[in-house]
Specification:
single chain; 256 residues; alpha/beta; three-stranded antiparallel sheet; two-stranded parallel ribbon; 8 helices; 11 strands; 27% helix
Length: 256
């Protein structure tokens, strides 16, 4: 597409493959012959920048996390909607409170309780390129009616001596709420036990590589626990291990 027909206002000076556009340019491009591509947030599509009905198609990415309330709001800008996403994803993080059913996601509402989108409403992409088959099988059975399968390439990634899937480690403790020193100490032990194991991803290298700190991601339920684990890892000299809540970890791909 001609870069001059891409209307995306930038908040930084980094180079991009399209021309820098201001808000006033977007309305001008929308009225030009040959069409244009507009990128923006819900604020863009509900503000004065994009006039009502000026778009032929509005694509909502991550529609499994985009609330029905927001979907209704942005729909004023377009004649057609295309929803891309996963209704089984965790909901969007928000402080706003909406009554049912507008608090649920657009795709969740459209699926009407089904684990996967019915064929009459759209397409289900049945191949996972990230999950190993042993992990994908369980996720598929629990959340996707057995319809999700791993791509052959996913089975070729391996961590020497560690079985693919989920391993449960029981940590006795009591009296804790949003922090658990016992679990934080176990995280340090698990990281140490896995560092240096041979990791192979044929798409990245034909040779095994030792698992490094940068290859490990720790997810915790509460910010207080995130901070405690970070402190314990730093104290153990493991500053390269990333730690975060699930909200900052979605979409990331790491060996362990």
């Amino acid at each position: 597409m001609d870069p001059s027909l891409i209307a995306k206002e930038m908040k930084h000076d980094d180079p991009v493959p399209w021309d820098q556009q201001a808000k006033d340019d977007i309305e001008r491009l929308l009225g030009s012959r040959g069409g244009c591509l507009v990128g923006g947030t819900a604020w863009t599509m509900t503000g004065r920048t994009v006039p009502p009905g000026s778009l032929d198609l509005l694509v909502i990415d991550e529609a499994g996390q985009f609330s029905l309330a927001n979907t209704l709001a942005v729909s004023r800008a377009t004649k057609r909607l295309l929803l891309l996403g996963d209704p089984q994803q965790l909901p969007q993080v928000t402080q706003g409170k909406h009554p049912e059913p507008v608090d649920e996601s657009a795709l969740g509402w459209l699926a009407h309780g089904a684990h996967t989108l019915p064929a009459k409403l759209g397409y289900f992409l049945a191949t996972s390129w990230r999950m190993h088959p042993d992990l994908c099988a369980a996720v598929s059975e629990l959340s996707y009616d057995g319809r999700l399968h791993s791509a052959p390439a996913a089975s070729k990634r391996r961590l020497s001596g560690v079985r693919a899937g989920v391993e449960c480690v029981y940590v006795p403790h009591g009296g804790n709420s949003t922090q658990s020193p016992e679990e934080a100490a176990e995280v340090v032990r698990q990281v140490r036990a896995h560092l240096g194991l041979a990791w192979l991803d044929p798409r990245e290298s034909t040779e095994e590589q030792p698992l490094a700190e940068k290859d490990i991601l720790v997810v915790a339920a509460y910010n207080a626990q995130v901070q405690l684990i970070q402190h314990e890892l730093r104290a153990a000299g493991l500053r390269g291990v990333r730690v975060g809540p699930w909200t900052s970890s979605r979409g990331r791909k790491l060996p362990w």
